[in-house]
Design goal:
The protein has 8 helices and 25 strands. With about 425 residues, the chain is an alpha/beta fold. It is globular. About 45% of the residues are buried.
Protein backbone atom coordinates (compact mmCIF):
# COMPACT_ATOMS: atom_id res chain seq x y z
CA UNK A 1 0.00 0.00 0.00
CA UNK A 2 1.36 3.41 -0.99
CA UNK A 3 1.22 5.77 1.99
CA UNK A 4 1.24 9.55 1.61
CA UNK A 5 0.03 10.50 5.10
CA UNK A 6 3.46 10.80 6.70
CA UNK A 7 5.04 12.93 3.99
CA UNK A 8 6.00 16.34 5.28
CA UNK A 9 5.04 18.33 2.21
CA UNK A 10 2.43 20.87 1.32
CA UNK A 11 1.16 21.61 -2.17
CA UNK A 12 4.18 20.44 -4.10
CA UNK A 13 3.80 21.18 -7.80
CA UNK A 14 3.93 18.03 -9.91
CA UNK A 15 3.75 18.52 -13.66
CA UNK A 16 3.28 15.68 -16.13
CA UNK A 17 4.08 16.50 -19.76
CA UNK A 18 2.01 14.28 -22.01
CA UNK A 19 -1.58 13.11 -21.64
CA UNK A 20 -1.19 9.84 -23.47
CA UNK A 21 -1.42 6.40 -21.86
CA UNK A 22 1.43 6.82 -19.38
CA UNK A 23 0.68 10.40 -18.38
CA UNK A 24 -3.03 9.73 -17.87
CA UNK A 25 -2.53 6.59 -15.78
CA UNK A 26 0.09 8.21 -13.53
CA UNK A 27 -1.95 11.40 -12.99
CA UNK A 28 -5.06 9.46 -12.00
CA UNK A 29 -3.19 7.05 -9.75
CA UNK A 30 -1.35 9.90 -8.05
CA UNK A 31 -4.53 11.91 -7.50
CA UNK A 32 -6.19 8.90 -5.83
CA UNK A 33 -3.62 9.03 -3.03
CA UNK A 34 -3.49 12.84 -2.93
CA UNK A 35 -5.08 13.13 0.50
CA UNK A 36 -5.34 16.64 1.97
CA UNK A 37 -4.25 18.04 -1.40
CA UNK A 38 -0.56 17.68 -0.70
CA UNK A 39 0.14 17.77 -4.43
CA UNK A 40 -0.95 20.10 -7.18
CA UNK A 41 -1.09 17.78 -10.18
CA UNK A 42 -1.06 19.35 -13.64
CA UNK A 43 -0.96 17.49 -16.94
CA UNK A 44 0.10 19.47 -20.00
CA UNK A 45 -0.47 18.32 -23.57
CA UNK A 46 -0.62 20.18 -26.87
CA UNK A 47 -3.51 18.06 -28.20
CA UNK A 48 -7.02 17.76 -26.76
CA UNK A 49 -7.85 14.35 -28.29
CA UNK A 50 -6.62 11.04 -26.87
CA UNK A 51 -6.18 8.27 -29.44
CA UNK A 52 -6.30 4.58 -28.66
CA UNK A 53 -3.29 3.83 -30.81
CA UNK A 54 -3.63 0.00 -30.89
CA UNK A 55 -6.90 0.65 -32.69
CA UNK A 56 -5.06 2.12 -35.68
CA UNK A 57 -4.17 -1.44 -36.71
CA UNK A 58 -7.83 -2.34 -37.22
CA UNK A 59 -8.86 0.73 -39.22
CA UNK A 60 -7.36 -0.45 -42.55
CA UNK A 61 -9.43 -3.63 -42.39
CA UNK A 62 -12.71 -1.94 -41.47
CA UNK A 63 -12.79 -3.66 -38.08
CA UNK A 64 -12.95 -0.30 -36.25
CA UNK A 65 -13.92 3.21 -37.26
CA UNK A 66 -12.24 6.48 -36.36
CA UNK A 67 -14.79 7.51 -33.72
CA UNK A 68 -14.13 4.27 -31.81
CA UNK A 69 -10.46 5.03 -31.19
CA UNK A 70 -10.56 8.60 -29.87
CA UNK A 71 -11.92 10.54 -26.90
CA UNK A 72 -11.61 14.02 -25.46
CA UNK A 73 -8.74 14.03 -22.96
CA UNK A 74 -10.67 16.06 -20.43
CA UNK A 75 -13.07 13.12 -19.98
CA UNK A 76 -10.28 10.73 -19.01
CA UNK A 77 -9.00 12.39 -15.82
CA UNK A 78 -10.52 12.07 -12.38
CA UNK A 79 -11.51 15.12 -10.34
CA UNK A 80 -8.57 17.06 -8.97
CA UNK A 81 -6.20 16.58 -11.92
CA UNK A 82 -5.61 19.81 -13.83
CA UNK A 83 -5.43 19.32 -17.61
CA UNK A 84 -3.91 22.14 -19.61
CA UNK A 85 -3.95 22.09 -23.41
CA UNK A 86 -0.91 24.12 -24.37
CA UNK A 87 2.55 23.67 -25.83
CA UNK A 88 5.81 23.48 -23.89
CA UNK A 89 8.68 25.01 -25.84
CA UNK A 90 11.49 23.97 -23.50
CA UNK A 91 12.15 22.12 -20.26
CA UNK A 92 14.57 24.22 -18.22
CA UNK A 93 15.62 21.37 -15.96
CA UNK A 94 18.40 23.30 -14.27
CA UNK A 95 15.90 25.85 -12.96
CA UNK A 96 12.93 23.48 -12.45
CA UNK A 97 10.61 25.24 -14.84
CA UNK A 98 8.88 24.87 -18.20
CA UNK A 99 9.07 27.56 -20.85
CA UNK A 100 5.72 27.72 -22.62
CA UNK A 101 5.06 28.66 -26.25
CA UNK A 102 3.57 31.99 -25.15
CA UNK A 103 6.80 32.86 -23.32
CA UNK A 104 5.47 32.30 -19.80
CA UNK A 105 7.18 29.88 -17.45
CA UNK A 106 5.77 27.25 -15.13
CA UNK A 107 7.76 26.17 -12.08
CA UNK A 108 7.65 22.61 -10.79
CA UNK A 109 8.93 20.69 -7.82
CA UNK A 110 8.83 17.41 -9.70
CA UNK A 111 8.39 16.61 -13.39
CA UNK A 112 7.17 13.47 -15.14
CA UNK A 113 8.07 13.28 -18.82
CA UNK A 114 5.54 11.20 -20.75
CA UNK A 115 5.96 12.69 -24.21
CA UNK A 116 6.06 9.36 -26.07
CA UNK A 117 7.56 8.74 -29.49
CA UNK A 118 6.48 9.65 -33.01
CA UNK A 119 7.22 8.24 -36.44
CA UNK A 120 9.87 10.16 -38.40
CA UNK A 121 9.68 9.30 -42.10
CA UNK A 122 12.03 12.20 -42.79
CA UNK A 123 14.85 10.13 -41.27
CA UNK A 124 14.82 7.74 -44.28
CA UNK A 125 15.56 8.83 -47.83
CA UNK A 126 12.56 8.19 -50.06
CA UNK A 127 9.89 8.51 -47.39
CA UNK A 128 9.34 12.23 -47.79
CA UNK A 129 7.78 14.46 -50.41
CA UNK A 130 4.82 13.94 -52.72
CA UNK A 131 5.31 10.18 -52.94
CA UNK A 132 4.88 9.53 -49.21
CA UNK A 133 1.27 8.34 -49.37
CA UNK A 134 1.12 7.25 -53.03
CA UNK A 135 2.86 3.90 -52.74
CA UNK A 136 4.08 3.90 -49.14
CA UNK A 137 1.70 3.66 -46.20
CA UNK A 138 1.72 3.38 -42.42
CA UNK A 139 -0.81 2.53 -39.73
CA UNK A 140 0.96 4.33 -36.87
CA UNK A 141 -1.02 7.51 -37.52
CA UNK A 142 -4.73 8.13 -38.00
CA UNK A 143 -4.13 9.63 -41.45
CA UNK A 144 -1.91 6.75 -42.50
CA UNK A 145 -4.36 4.08 -41.32
CA UNK A 146 -7.26 5.66 -43.20
CA UNK A 147 -5.27 6.00 -46.42
CA UNK A 148 -3.99 2.44 -46.08
CA UNK A 149 -7.60 1.23 -45.93
CA UNK A 150 -8.26 2.79 -49.35
CA UNK A 151 -5.03 1.36 -50.74
CA UNK A 152 -5.93 -2.16 -49.59
CA UNK A 153 -9.36 -1.89 -51.21
CA UNK A 154 -7.77 -1.18 -54.59
CA UNK A 155 -4.89 -3.65 -54.20
CA UNK A 156 -5.28 -6.61 -56.57
CA UNK A 157 -2.16 -8.62 -55.94
CA UNK A 158 1.61 -8.40 -56.24
CA UNK A 159 4.35 -7.87 -53.67
CA UNK A 160 3.00 -6.56 -50.37
CA UNK A 161 5.80 -5.69 -47.96
CA UNK A 162 5.59 -4.95 -44.24
CA UNK A 163 8.76 -3.11 -43.31
CA UNK A 164 10.42 -1.85 -40.12
CA UNK A 165 13.20 0.71 -40.56
CA UNK A 166 14.84 0.28 -37.15
CA UNK A 167 14.17 -0.55 -33.53
CA UNK A 168 12.89 0.45 -31.04
CA UNK A 169 9.32 1.09 -32.14
CA UNK A 170 6.13 1.52 -30.17
CA UNK A 171 3.95 -1.59 -30.04
CA UNK A 172 6.68 -3.86 -31.46
CA UNK A 173 4.23 -6.67 -32.27
CA UNK A 174 1.91 -4.47 -34.37
CA UNK A 175 3.77 -5.10 -37.66
CA UNK A 176 3.40 -8.84 -37.08
CA UNK A 177 -0.29 -8.40 -36.41
CA UNK A 178 -0.64 -6.48 -39.65
CA UNK A 179 0.75 -9.30 -41.81
CA UNK A 180 -1.47 -11.86 -40.05
CA UNK A 181 -4.52 -9.68 -40.58
CA UNK A 182 -3.69 -8.80 -44.17
CA UNK A 183 -3.25 -12.51 -44.92
CA UNK A 184 -6.81 -13.08 -43.66
CA UNK A 185 -8.08 -9.99 -45.50
CA UNK A 186 -6.60 -11.08 -48.84
CA UNK A 187 -7.95 -14.61 -48.44
CA UNK A 188 -11.42 -13.16 -47.84
CA UNK A 189 -11.04 -11.12 -51.03
CA UNK A 190 -9.87 -14.16 -52.97
CA UNK A 191 -6.51 -12.69 -53.99
CA UNK A 192 -4.13 -14.23 -51.46
CA UNK A 193 -2.72 -16.59 -54.11
CA UNK A 194 -1.90 -13.52 -56.22
CA UNK A 195 0.03 -11.84 -53.41
CA UNK A 196 3.51 -12.34 -51.99
CA UNK A 197 3.68 -11.08 -48.40
CA UNK A 198 7.10 -10.24 -47.02
CA UNK A 199 8.05 -9.18 -43.50
CA UNK A 200 11.22 -7.07 -43.65
CA UNK A 201 12.79 -6.52 -40.23
CA UNK A 202 16.09 -5.34 -38.75
CA UNK A 203 15.79 -8.16 -36.20
CA UNK A 204 17.21 -11.66 -36.60
CA UNK A 205 13.72 -13.13 -36.59
CA UNK A 206 10.07 -12.41 -35.94
CA UNK A 207 10.64 -11.04 -32.41
CA UNK A 208 13.35 -10.01 -29.98
CA UNK A 209 13.00 -13.01 -27.65
CA UNK A 210 13.99 -16.49 -28.96
CA UNK A 211 10.94 -18.40 -27.70
CA UNK A 212 8.50 -15.83 -29.07
CA UNK A 213 10.50 -15.52 -32.30
CA UNK A 214 10.27 -19.28 -32.84
CA UNK A 215 6.52 -19.41 -32.17
CA UNK A 216 5.64 -16.34 -34.23
CA UNK A 217 8.08 -17.26 -37.00
CA UNK A 218 6.35 -20.63 -37.24
CA UNK A 219 2.97 -18.96 -37.60
CA UNK A 220 4.35 -16.74 -40.38
CA UNK A 221 5.71 -19.81 -42.18
CA UNK A 222 2.34 -21.57 -41.90
CA UNK A 223 0.73 -18.63 -43.68
CA UNK A 224 3.41 -18.45 -46.37
CA UNK A 225 4.69 -15.07 -45.18
CA UNK A 226 8.40 -14.70 -45.87
CA UNK A 227 10.69 -13.11 -43.28
CA UNK A 228 13.55 -10.96 -44.57
CA UNK A 229 15.71 -10.60 -41.42
CA UNK A 230 18.64 -8.38 -40.47
CA UNK A 231 17.65 -5.77 -43.03
CA UNK A 232 19.24 -2.37 -42.47
CA UNK A 233 17.35 0.15 -44.59
CA UNK A 234 19.52 2.64 -46.45
CA UNK A 235 16.78 4.24 -48.56
CA UNK A 236 13.67 3.68 -50.64
CA UNK A 237 13.80 3.96 -54.43
CA UNK A 238 10.31 5.19 -55.27
CA UNK A 239 10.80 5.05 -59.03
CA UNK A 240 11.75 1.38 -58.97
CA UNK A 241 9.55 0.63 -55.93
CA UNK A 242 12.44 -0.94 -54.09
CA UNK A 243 13.77 -1.10 -50.54
CA UNK A 244 17.55 -0.79 -50.58
CA UNK A 245 19.62 -2.21 -47.76
CA UNK A 246 23.05 -1.14 -46.57
CA UNK A 247 24.31 -4.64 -47.42
CA UNK A 248 23.21 -4.36 -51.04
CA UNK A 249 20.00 -6.37 -50.72
CA UNK A 250 16.94 -5.15 -52.57
CA UNK A 251 13.28 -5.87 -51.80
CA UNK A 252 10.73 -4.87 -54.43
CA UNK A 253 7.18 -3.89 -53.58
CA UNK A 254 3.87 -3.03 -55.17
CA UNK A 255 2.46 -1.87 -51.85
CA UNK A 256 4.75 -0.96 -48.97
CA UNK A 257 3.49 -0.68 -45.39
CA UNK A 258 6.27 0.71 -43.25
CA UNK A 259 7.13 1.61 -39.69
CA UNK A 260 9.47 4.61 -39.99
CA UNK A 261 12.11 5.46 -37.42
CA UNK A 262 10.52 6.17 -34.04
CA UNK A 263 11.92 9.17 -32.18
CA UNK A 264 11.09 11.02 -29.01
CA UNK A 265 9.52 14.45 -28.94
CA UNK A 266 11.34 17.45 -30.42
CA UNK A 267 10.81 19.02 -27.00
CA UNK A 268 13.33 16.58 -25.55
CA UNK A 269 15.89 17.58 -28.20
CA UNK A 270 15.35 21.32 -27.76
CA UNK A 271 15.71 20.90 -24.00
CA UNK A 272 18.98 18.98 -24.30
CA UNK A 273 17.60 16.03 -22.35
CA UNK A 274 17.75 13.21 -24.90
CA UNK A 275 20.02 10.87 -26.84
CA UNK A 276 20.29 10.64 -30.63
CA UNK A 277 16.68 9.35 -30.80
CA UNK A 278 15.41 12.08 -28.45
CA UNK A 279 14.85 9.48 -25.72
CA UNK A 280 15.62 10.48 -22.13
CA UNK A 281 18.44 8.48 -20.44
CA UNK A 282 16.64 6.80 -17.55
CA UNK A 283 17.39 4.30 -14.80
CA UNK A 284 15.65 1.19 -16.10
CA UNK A 285 14.61 0.01 -12.64
CA UNK A 286 13.67 3.21 -10.78
CA UNK A 287 12.51 5.20 -13.88
CA UNK A 288 14.27 8.28 -12.54
CA UNK A 289 16.19 10.48 -14.98
CA UNK A 290 19.89 9.70 -14.85
CA UNK A 291 20.70 13.40 -14.85
CA UNK A 292 17.96 15.10 -12.82
CA UNK A 293 16.72 13.58 -9.57
CA UNK A 294 13.34 15.38 -9.67
CA UNK A 295 12.48 14.11 -13.16
CA UNK A 296 10.89 10.73 -13.84
CA UNK A 297 10.29 9.31 -17.30
CA UNK A 298 7.23 7.25 -18.18
CA UNK A 299 6.05 5.23 -21.14
CA UNK A 300 7.79 5.46 -24.49
CA UNK A 301 9.83 8.61 -23.75
CA UNK A 302 12.72 6.84 -22.00
CA UNK A 303 15.68 4.90 -23.37
CA UNK A 304 15.12 1.86 -21.14
CA UNK A 305 15.29 -1.58 -22.85
CA UNK A 306 11.61 -2.39 -22.30
CA UNK A 307 8.90 -2.64 -24.94
CA UNK A 308 7.22 0.61 -25.89
CA UNK A 309 3.64 -0.45 -25.21
CA UNK A 310 0.65 0.59 -23.14
CA UNK A 311 0.93 -2.37 -20.77
CA UNK A 312 4.47 -1.32 -19.91
CA UNK A 313 3.26 2.17 -18.98
CA UNK A 314 0.69 0.55 -16.70
CA UNK A 315 3.33 -1.59 -14.99
CA UNK A 316 5.67 1.40 -14.64
CA UNK A 317 3.11 3.56 -12.87
CA UNK A 318 3.40 2.09 -9.37
CA UNK A 319 7.21 2.30 -9.43
CA UNK A 320 7.08 5.94 -10.52
CA UNK A 321 4.48 6.91 -7.94
CA UNK A 322 6.32 5.08 -5.17
CA UNK A 323 9.54 6.87 -6.11
CA UNK A 324 7.84 10.26 -6.34
CA UNK A 325 6.82 9.82 -2.71
CA UNK A 326 10.26 8.53 -1.75
CA UNK A 327 11.86 11.52 -3.48
CA UNK A 328 9.81 13.95 -1.39
CA UNK A 329 10.70 11.99 1.75
CA UNK A 330 14.39 12.11 0.85
CA UNK A 331 14.60 8.32 0.62
CA UNK A 332 16.55 6.12 -1.76
CA UNK A 333 14.76 5.21 -4.98
CA UNK A 334 13.09 1.81 -5.16
CA UNK A 335 14.33 -0.14 -8.18
CA UNK A 336 11.19 -2.23 -8.61
CA UNK A 337 10.37 -2.00 -12.33
CA UNK A 338 11.62 -5.16 -14.03
CA UNK A 339 10.61 -4.43 -17.61
CA UNK A 340 7.30 -6.28 -17.38
CA UNK A 341 5.35 -6.28 -20.65
CA UNK A 342 2.43 -8.27 -21.94
CA UNK A 343 0.19 -8.02 -24.97
CA UNK A 344 -2.24 -9.87 -27.17
CA UNK A 345 -1.11 -10.50 -30.74
CA UNK A 346 -3.84 -10.88 -33.36
CA UNK A 347 -3.00 -13.78 -35.68
CA UNK A 348 -6.11 -13.69 -37.86
CA UNK A 349 -9.16 -15.92 -38.15
CA UNK A 350 -10.35 -14.89 -34.68
CA UNK A 351 -7.26 -16.23 -32.97
CA UNK A 352 -4.47 -14.62 -31.01
CA UNK A 353 -1.28 -15.21 -29.04
CA UNK A 354 -0.46 -13.65 -25.68
CA UNK A 355 3.11 -12.88 -24.63
CA UNK A 356 4.18 -11.93 -21.10
CA UNK A 357 7.84 -11.26 -20.25
CA UNK A 358 10.30 -8.89 -18.57
CA UNK A 359 13.96 -7.87 -18.67
CA UNK A 360 15.28 -11.22 -17.54
CA UNK A 361 12.63 -13.77 -18.48
CA UNK A 362 11.46 -15.24 -21.76
CA UNK A 363 7.73 -15.08 -22.53
CA UNK A 364 6.11 -17.57 -20.20
CA UNK A 365 3.79 -20.39 -21.23
CA UNK A 366 1.59 -20.47 -18.12
CA UNK A 367 -2.02 -19.50 -17.77
CA UNK A 368 -2.50 -15.72 -17.31
CA UNK A 369 -3.36 -13.94 -15.05
CA UNK A 370 -4.13 -16.87 -12.73
CA UNK A 371 -1.80 -19.86 -12.72
CA UNK A 372 -3.62 -22.98 -13.90
CA UNK A 373 -6.86 -21.08 -14.47
CA UNK A 374 -6.17 -18.35 -17.00
CA UNK A 375 -8.31 -17.60 -18.91
CA UNK A 376 -5.47 -16.59 -21.25
CA UNK A 377 -2.62 -18.85 -22.36
CA UNK A 378 0.91 -17.56 -22.68
CA UNK A 379 2.64 -18.07 -26.03
CA UNK A 380 -0.09 -20.20 -27.58
CA UNK A 381 -2.65 -19.41 -30.26
CA UNK A 382 -6.28 -19.49 -29.16
CA UNK A 383 -9.67 -17.87 -29.61
CA UNK A 384 -9.78 -16.67 -26.00
CA UNK A 385 -6.56 -14.71 -26.60
CA UNK A 386 -8.25 -13.09 -29.59
CA UNK A 387 -11.18 -12.05 -27.42
CA UNK A 388 -8.72 -10.61 -24.93
CA UNK A 389 -7.47 -8.38 -27.72
CA UNK A 390 -10.99 -7.45 -28.83
CA UNK A 391 -12.10 -6.43 -25.34
CA UNK A 392 -8.89 -4.52 -24.62
CA UNK A 393 -10.25 -1.30 -26.10
CA UNK A 394 -13.13 -1.08 -23.59
CA UNK A 395 -10.81 -2.12 -20.77
CA UNK A 396 -8.43 0.65 -21.82
CA UNK A 397 -11.04 3.43 -21.89
CA UNK A 398 -13.06 2.40 -18.86
CA UNK A 399 -10.62 0.71 -16.47
CA UNK A 400 -6.93 1.12 -17.28
CA UNK A 401 -6.71 4.88 -17.77
CA UNK A 402 -8.80 5.73 -14.71
CA UNK A 403 -7.19 3.04 -12.52
CA UNK A 404 -10.47 1.34 -11.67
CA UNK A 405 -10.34 -1.99 -9.81
CA UNK A 406 -6.56 -1.56 -9.45
CA UNK A 407 -6.24 -4.22 -6.72
CA UNK A 408 -7.72 -6.83 -9.04
CA UNK A 409 -5.72 -5.71 -12.06
CA UNK A 410 -2.45 -5.77 -10.16
CA UNK A 411 -2.79 -9.54 -9.87
CA UNK A 412 -1.44 -9.83 -13.40
CA UNK A 413 1.85 -8.43 -12.20
Amino acid sequence: MINISNINIFMKKIIIIGAGTAGTIIANKLQKINRNNRFEITVIDKQSIHYYQPGYLFLPFGKLEEHQVKKDKKDLFIDGVNLEISKVSKIDAENNRLIMEDGNSKPYDLLVIATGVNIRPDETEGMTGDLWYKNIFDFYTMEGAKKLREALKSFNGGDLVMHIVEMPIKCPVAPLEFVFLVDEYLRDRGIRDKTNIKYVTPLEGAFTRPLAAKKLGGLLEERNIKIVPNFGTEKIDNEQQMLLGYDGREVGFDLLVTVPTNMGSNLIESSGLGNELNLVPTNQYSLQSKKHKNIFVAGDASDIPASKAGSVAHFQAETIITNILRYFKGKKMKESFKGHANCFIETGDNKGVMIDFDYDNEPNVRKIPFEGIGPFSGLSESRINHWGKVTMRQYYWNILLKDRFSKILNLIK
